Amino acid sequence: MAVESKVNRQATCSAPVNIAVIKYWGKRDEKLILPTNSSLSATLDQADLKTTTSVALSSEFDSDRLWLNGKEESITNPRLQNVLQKIRSLASERAQTDEEKAVLDAHVHIVSVNNFPTAAGLASSASGYACMVYTLAQVYGVTDYELSKIARVGSGSACRSMYGGWVAWNMGTRDDGDDSFAEQTHLADHWPGMKILILVVSDRKKGTSSTSGMGTSVRTSELLQHRITEVVPKRMAAIKEAIEARDFAQFGEITMRDSNQFHAVCLDTYPPIFYMNDTSKAVVQMVTQYNTMKGEVKAAYTFDAGPNAVIYAMEDAMAEIASLTSHFFPSTTPDTFFRGTTTAPPAPSAELLSHFTIAQQPEDSLQYGINTQPGPGPQVLTDEECLLDSSGLPKATSA
Amino acid sequence: MAVESKVNRQATCSAPVNIAVIKYWGKRDEKLILPTNSSLSATLDQADLKTTTSVALSSEFDSDRLWLNGKEESITNPRLQNVLQKIRSLASERAQTDEEKAVLDAHVHIVSVNNFPTAAGLASSASGYACMVYTLAQVYGVTDYELSKIARVGSGSACRSMYGGWVAWNMGTRDDGDDSFAEQTHLADHWPGMKILILVVSDRKKGTSSTSGMGTSVRTSELLQHRITEVVPKRMAAIKEAIEARDFAQFGEITMRDSNQFHAVCLDTYPPIFYMNDTSKAVVQMVTQYNTMKGEVKAAYTFDAGPNAVIYAMEDAMAEIASLTSHFFPSTTPDTFFRGTTTAPPAPSAELLSHFTIAQQPEDSLQYGINTQPGPGPQVLTDEECLLDSSGLPKATSA
């Protein structure tokens, strides 16, 4: 029995995760999510980490609805409402035909899934909001707008997931946020051989949310103001030059210093915020001793608002880092420890190990590693990949 | 058989440890040990933590010699030589009688012991150098000089151990260091009921020495300059006012913020320095949640260049903190865990515990606690307490 589709319009898209090397920490406007400093990130390959979102729009739907990772969620979240409202008002400004006007009264069903466990503490709000905005824009026909400004009001760092490769988020100075947007500085293939390793730390404790943490930092850290006005502007310029010149030593040093300073500001917050733990610290020491051995910065760590480490390195150095990681952070499931694009690394040589003074960490201090690299921005997928069925409800496989 | 004493002059003194609440971190002159900011500390009661030093001077000694904690050590350490040279040149300027001039050519034997394990990572160089300078000054008859300036060239924070109670180290601005000295701001009994608890963390790993760490911070931390010029001068004034007014909430907040900022600067150093570990962090969280429960700052943590915690609190609050510590940091030897002035605390009530969300830490994460309080400065002891025998060698009991 053929079912007539209730859906008037639909689209399915995917969007990537990004990892900042110049960190975003502090808002000058909580509602518009305008930052106190610019930031810069690499967008990660979607083979390893992505969000996929389908949006259906139908005059027959009774209300807007949302399913995240197989579970229906309330759509009343203010940030989600801000995003929907902005896309619809953009569509409204442009509506000319009767069909375009009718679309404004119709409701949407949104289904979104991640190909990675949200429990791992990887920033899923960036890829999540980027994907939602990108997909809504397809459905509402507003893809020519600077969509990163809409993603930004969902989750600040989501604006950077609207582009592939290397992406800067310019803080802007306007009160209405119109000059606070992301832009690609370099394509994903600009720097051949660049690899990124995510090390997921086994720590189930819920830390301070980044929204609440950065609010407390802005109010209480005396060092944050100095970072905002004196340090970040110079670093933004310097890291763009380092990426342009493919100068890893320069890129890596700025990346590590900026991660250190972000966590320093968290510690200078009152009461202090600790995102890094003893396992994170051991990763820092492993990378530091690796660079000391090489006599040059060949690998760079960075930590977001949690204990997980992300390491940037060129392919050869990354092979050694993976090997050292498997030694210093022993796993009870070594064969499945490294996910993504490579297989399990060989054990490090005694000669290599002789350069290190750090202790082996307790078994399973790290949960697993993901080998990845810079990748492209959001993608429009085919109808075959749609997560909704013809009645506008999640397909069984998406639940 | 009576032995005629070879010793021409001798003295025995004790000197205290101090714990800074405004932290010293950074030198503007490595040799004279001139700091980049002023600092302020409480001197601790010597019942719990002290150094005792005997100095004998004799024309019959062949060379200067030094015994530390029962073991003869080389006296060629440049800082030790600086201290000896400064005391002797002071004595030389003043020498008038033949006896006074003869003393300048004689050698000294120095014996020094701590009443606490040096392995615990408590700052023994402060009490050690303070005691050596104080005792040498007795022997050389130069006790009227501002001796804190000489202690300072042995170990910066030693200058603060030259006084009891609350002590400020004024950074000074002169190149010769003549205006960089310690002075007592308040007597030890100024603030009745003030208690200090030292929590020794079980972590045998040797961290970055403070001398090398602060050198790297001065060279690499962009935030340290802001701390030096903008933050510390205001805090020095504010904490003196808080101590003067016996305003614990104000005193405690400044103390915690300054400890946080010192460790933030360490993290902003490149490569970063981590002194606090996961156990330190758990102490911070326990104190933070305690203050939240009280609706006011009733206890304050501070951490020096290592993982050990020091907690300041008034007597009643300290009783609760001790009780909470015994719960959240379980010990396999609870009866001997708390050393110093009190006995083992009672277990906390279920009602008290209901205000806390932190987890119990692994057994013996803390090694032991020392209950102490502000106390007086260096003391001249009697000949009976001398650590040297009549031949000018360490007594067997000191070895």
From TrEMBL, chains A, B:
Residues 15-182 form the Diphosphomevalonate decarboxylase-like N-terminal domain. Transmembrane segments: none annotated. Keywords: ATP-binding, Cholesterol biosynthesis, Cholesterol metabolism, Lipid biosynthesis, Lipid metabolism, Lyase, Nucleotide-binding, Steroid biosynthesis, Steroid metabolism, Sterol biosynthesis, Sterol metabolism. InterPro entries: GHMP_kinase_C_sf, Mev_decarb, Mev_diP_decarb, MVD-like_N, Mvd1_C, Ribosomal_Su5_D2-typ_SF, Ribsml_uS5_D2-typ_fold_subgr. Pathway: Steroid biosynthesis; cholesterol biosynthesis. Residues 196-381 form the Mvd1 C-terminal domain. GO terms for cellular component: cytosol. It is an enzyme of class 4 (lyase). One of its GO terms (molecular function) is diphosphomevalonate decarboxylase activity. Belongs to the diphosphomevalonate decarboxylase family. This is Diphosphomevalonate decarboxylase. It comes from Sphaeroforma arctica JP610.
